[in-house]
Amino acid sequence: MKKNLYIDKQWVETTDYVELFSPYSNEKIGDIPKASKEDVEHAIDAAANASEEMANLTAYQRAEILEQLVLLFIEHRERAAKLISLESSKPLKYALGEVDRTIETYKFAAEEAKRLTGEMVPMDAAKGGSNRLAYTLREPVGVVAAITPFNFPQNLVAHKIGPAIASGNTMVLKPASQTPLSAFLLAELLDQTDLPKGAFNLVTGSGKAVGDVLVESEKVKMVTFTGSPAVGKGIRDKAGLKKVALELGSNSGLIIDEGVDMDTVIEKVVIGSFSNQGQVCISLQRIYIMESLIEEFLTRFKEATTKLKVGDPLDPTTEISAMISKEEQQRAETWVQEAVAEGAKLVIGGKVEDEVFQPTILTQVSADSKVSCQEVFAPVVIVNPIQSVEQGISEINNSDYGLQAAIFTNDIKTAFNASKKLQVGGVLINDIPTFRVDQMPYGGVKESGNGKEGLKYTIEEMTEMKLVIWNQS
Question: What is the pTM for the complete model shown?
Answer without folding.
Answer: 0.96
